[in-house]
Amino acid sequence: MQFADFDSAAFLQNTWQKRPLLIRNPWTAWANPLEPDELAGLACEEAGVESRLITRRPDGIVLENGPFPEARFAQPEAAPWTLLVQAVDHHVPEVAALIAPFRFVPDWRIDDVMVSYATDGGGVGAHFDQYDVFLVQGLGRRRWRVGPRCDEATELLPHEDLRLLAEFEATGDWVLEPGDILYVPPGFAHDGVAVGDDCMTYSIGFRAPSRADLVESWSAHLADAMREDDRYSDADLALQANPGEITPEALARLHALVVEAVADGAAFSRWFGAYNSLPKYADADWRPEAPIGLRAMQTCLADGCELSRNSASRFAFIRQSEQAVCLFVDGQSFDCTGDAATLAERICAGGTLLVEPRLAVSVPVASLLAALVDQGSLAFEEAE
Ligand code: SIN
Ligand code: CO
Q1: With a 6 A CB cut-off, is 116 part of the ligand 1 pocket?
Q2: 324 vs 30, 177, 179, 329, 340, CA distance in Å?
Q3: Which tens digits make up the pLDDT trace of 28-72?
Q4: pLDDT tens digit string along 335-377?
Q5: CA dihedral angle for residue 42, residue 282, residue 89, residue 328, rounded to 10 degrees
Q6: Considering only CA atoms, which residue is closest to atom 4 of ligand 1?
Q7: DSSP tag of 347
Q8: 3-class DSSP state for residue 83?
């Protein structure tokens, strides 16, 4: 899937994180990548798939969480409803392929692709999200209205499970056809209602860590490695006039204990790379039945086998020098130099991976690839 006509540099400059934008079918040839039945099938799976069903019954909006029994979709109810399935890109490579044209935003900012299916009049209701989203109309039609930027003070409807807006005044109102895209930055009110049945929308969602999550997770990581005897000390304690005072000197020393620990930029970078690449669904295990091992990997590489990235895996790197990178894959870090660094960058660039003979004979290259296959992040392409 690719765009025929889209100026990503202009988009970043004028639109990204600034204002909503309707983009009329920019694809070379739009083809809906998933059938409604396949989506329903995912929502019926017992493990590893997060799904929700929202029904607009006359007596109120009802939210139910999956998995759902198959009968639920065989005889659906008459009231408008919508099914939402999270991280479909992890399970369906054709849906993962939808992300490629949006990679003008770096991979570490990408979260997942949620897919919704709605019957006529179905939708989640007016709301705002904390994240940027591209809403790609896949099948059928949906009327989208967007409103102003909301914040913590914006009034919500009383509802146990849903954060719906009490008031919504649209500043934009469009009907999207297959292939059309609506970009919504964080915080902007939006409301999408299916126009007719068989309405499918693909939400390419981004992530932006909250300061609270960063501080909490980074400091928890640091604290794990700290020693019991690494603590406040005051061998130079001076007599104070009032023993009830916590003196500025004591406070400065206490504050320094914290600030010095969290201020290590190089350690933060390594931690963040690994943290951000953690699998979103910790219970998903894509490892092969038996580890491949270095020898078998070398044979496969010599035979010219191609490798591809697991759609559910997260890859990123940070550059340490011209010759060295640190590669992060699914929560693990790999220090790579020379040929292995070249390969790490190539893996992160995406696409299938055919390792040329010059690199294939390198032991660091083969051991990096074996480690990634063994942890389920890379797999050999199935022979045609
Ligand atoms: C939907 O696909 O119906 C909802 C997507 C969203 O509003 O974020
Ligand atoms: Co939304």
Answers
A1: yes
A2: 40, 46, 41, 16, 9
A3: 999 999 999 999 999 999 888 999 999 999 999 999 999 999 999
A4: 999 999 999 999 999 988 999 988 889 999 999 999 999 999 9
A5: -170
A6: 124
A7: H
A8: strand
Q: Of ligand 1's atoms, which has the minimum distance to the CA of residue 129?
A: 8
**HEC string of 93-152?**
HHHHHHHHHHCCCCHHHEEEEEEEEECCCCCCCCECCCCCEEEEEEEEEEEEEEEEECCC
Place of tokens 């999408």: 192
Atom of ligand 1 at shortest distance to CA of 122? 3
Pick the residue whose CA is nearest to atom 5 on ligand 1.
203
Which pLDDT band holds residue 287 (cuts at 50, 70, 90)? Answer: confident
Average pLDDT, integer, range 181-195: 98
In contact, 164 and 61? CB cutoff 8 Å: yes
Q: Is the pTM of this model over 0.90?
A: yes
Q: Please state the atom number of ligand 1 nearest to the C-alpha of residue 192.
A: 3
Residue 124 near ligand 1, beta carbon < 6 Å? yes
Q: Which atom of ligand 1 is nearest to the CA of 205?
A: 8
**Could you give the residue ranges of the DSSP H alpha helices within the chain?**
8-14, 36-44, 71-74, 93-96, 211-224, 248-262, 265-276, 293-302, 338-349, 357-360, 363-374
Residue 79 tokens read as: 């009231």
| Chain centroid, CA 122 distance in Å | 25
Q: For a substitution probing ligand 1, which of 114, 131, 141, 180 has the most ligand atoms within 8 Å of its CB?
A: 114
Q: Ligand 2 being an ion, which residues bring their Cβ within 5 A of it?
A: 129
The type of residue at 312 is A
The residue whose CA is least distant from atom 1 of ligand 1 is 116
d(CA 128, CA 112): 17
Question: Does any ligand 1 atom lie closer than 6 A to the CB of residue 147?
Answer: no
137 phi/psi in degrees, rounded to 5: -80, 120
In the chain the domains, ranked by start, together with CATH numbers, are 8-206 (2.60.120.650), 211-228+244-263 (no CATH), 294-380 (3.40.366.30)
